Amino acid sequence: MGFGNKWSRHGVMSSSTELSAYMPETRKMSQGNLTSMLNKYGMVYVKPVNGSMGVGVMRVEKRGKGIRCQAGTVRRSFPDVASGYEAIRDFAGGKAYMVQMGIRLKKYRGRPFDLRIMVQRKPGGPWKVTGIAGRLAHPRKIVTNGSQGGTIYPASVLLPGSEALINRMKGISLRTVRRLHAVYPGLKQIGLDMAVDTQGRPWIIEANTKPDPCPFTKLPSHAALREIVSHGKAWGIHYKLKCLKSHRGR
Q: Which domain of life is it from (predicted)?
């Protein structure tokens, strides 16, 4: 059995009264939805329904009557939403996209970051948070993924003195995976991307059902990596662990 795509998983999580407060508003991509979301939030993220490693993600910001789009390190401005939407459609190449409320992320050394939280279970065992890694965005990019040149830090470095918040996010992660497991009973692991906004509020960005534990190879301690690999092996899952583009935080 499959585990849906980003759009369907978002719907499963958003429909939970336990999780809805942590879910950024997300709609299917259309010119009308892009316009209304920009009017409401000023900044949104446009991302593929089926995607991974930050590929195809675009940030769109309102600029007066026009908009500015950034994908990777490339920025383009458009005089109105209609012309920007057409360019985004060309960029999408016919793939299904969704538009998500923009979150003003906390920053470290002037760069936004989020957290990758691994939640796994062994056959017959309970769900467990096996690792948390902080991901700092490449200085010229909008996504935090290590595969896009992000830098990996322990969560405690990016969120100093926030043990209570980190523990709260662990609890949210466990509630999230239990909700998803109820709908997708074959689920064995998720990599939950969570962020903290400038007001200190946690958000669930997305749940990845084939998570790449590469970020954990860049942490000073490999305790989490060993735990993650052990849980994967219990299901016959073997990770490549080749992380050529991410960096270890200094």
A: Bacteria
Q: What one-letter code names the amino acid at 185?
A: P
Q: Please tell me what DSSP assigns to residue 215.
A: G
The domain over range 25-101 is classified in CATH as 3.30.1490.20: yes
Domain boundaries 107-248, CATH class: alpha beta
The structure tokens 């992660």 sit at: 173
In degrees and rounded to multiples of 5, residue 161 shows phi and psi of: 70, 20
Q: What is the mean pLDDT of residues 165-176?
A: 98
Contact 202, 233 (CB under 8 A): no
Contact 195, 136 (CB under 8 A): no
* Common-topology check for domains 25-101 and 107-248: no
Structural domain boundaries in the chain = 25-101, 107-248
Q: What percent of the chain has pLDDT over 90?
A: 74
Answer for the pair 1, 186: CB distance below 8 angstroms, yes or no: yes
Separation between Cα atoms, residue 131 and residue 35, nearest integer Å: 38
Give pLDDT tens digits for 79-122: 999 999 999 888 888 889 999 999 999 999 999 999 999 999 99
Reported as half-sphere exposure (CB side, CA atoms, 13 A), residue 145 has a value of: 18
